[in-house]
Amino acid sequence: MIMDKSRNRAEEVSKDLIPGLPSDLAMECLVRVPYQFQSAMRSVCRSWRSLLSDPSFIGERRRCGKAELLLCLVQPLPPPNPASRAVGETETLLAVEEKGEKRVSCTPRFGFSVYNATISTWNHVAFPDHQIPLFCECVSVQDAGKILLIGGWDPETLQPVKDVYVLEVNGKRWRRGAPMKESRSFFACTSVGSTKVYVAGGHDDQKNALRSAEVYDVEKDEWSTIPSMAEGRDECQGFSMGTGLGGFCVLSGYATESQGRFKQDGEVYDPTTKSWSRIENVWPFADTSPRGRTVVDTRGSSSLRCFTDREFSQRQWESKDGSRKWKLDVEAIQLPTSGSSVYVGSSGGEAVVMIGGRRDSEGVMMKTKEEKDVGKWSHVNDIPFGFSTLPFSHASIYV
């Protein structure tokens, strides 16, 4: 249904694309142009700019099997080379207490990186005029052709922010979106349906765990407050459940007074009833954050994969909320390496693990095999230096 709507819209904006060619044949030509050349295409004429600016163009590329898959990462940048620093340029310093002594360290700088999984290339994407907020959430809205960066910390004051930045992937341009109602960081965030992005939990400027939640309408560029969760949940993970008007699940997290002890349950928001319900036994690792350790498949019934570096006696189980409306098929999967230097994300529905590189080496990207071989890992590629620091958040989108 969505693909049919996309094609109808594409037909509306595809008139007079190439003189002398029928519009459908002209469209078949243009959708085959690689993504890296689309910026130049926008400069050719007004009709091409209009076509490429419309989200239906991505739908047509997917229909023809020509869409490229981008994995977008918010990750710390490597420390700058002091020899290359401009005259007068300084680093932000952060005082840190350690064993009774105060030492000074550099505040990390965050960047926005893109891995093109179709042609296996890595690129840093410029951010206009200022630094990306530290620890901001990255989320994609496929039908709208947008990547959003939400919340996090101001890189100068190190305080939570309400900021929202929107990347139009067709136009490759950033703009400011409407800010959230409340400043927050380390919160749950995900897109639900074709136009909505939900956020909940995290912490405020006093490191208090938040119960509050909001929803962003991508088309209207508006935030609305929704009912609060039953409990405050800091450092929680968000994902959508089901298809269409699905639920928004906030997984685990911890209360203000129990930092580092992660809850085993979650809460699910139902947009139809505008209420929350609790879902039990979905995160069994009380000493580990679910961030960078979960992948969700929402095709059919929702399936949650929890990745761990330890042996686990129970590999699969089912969890339902109190209303019995929402169900999760949960599976624990062994990571390909032990230790904490890993990050698991989803790229086009596949689970991908990034294994961080050290200063003098490269990182590695691996992915799980499907169906009966799930839990078996295959090598995707080596991550070049400059991109091998583990991300804080990620999103994938077809372009």
TrEMBL record:
Write the protein's name: F-box domain-containing protein
Which taxonomic lineage is given here? Eukaryota, Viridiplantae, Streptophyta, Embryophyta, Tracheophyta
F-box domain boundaries? 21-61
What are the record's GO terms for cellular component? cytosol
Q: Gene3D superfamilies per the record?
A: Kelch-type beta propeller
Origin species: Brassica carinata (Ethiopian mustard)
Biological process (GO) annotations held by this record are: negative regulation of cytokinin-activated signaling pathway; regulation of phenylpropanoid metabolic process
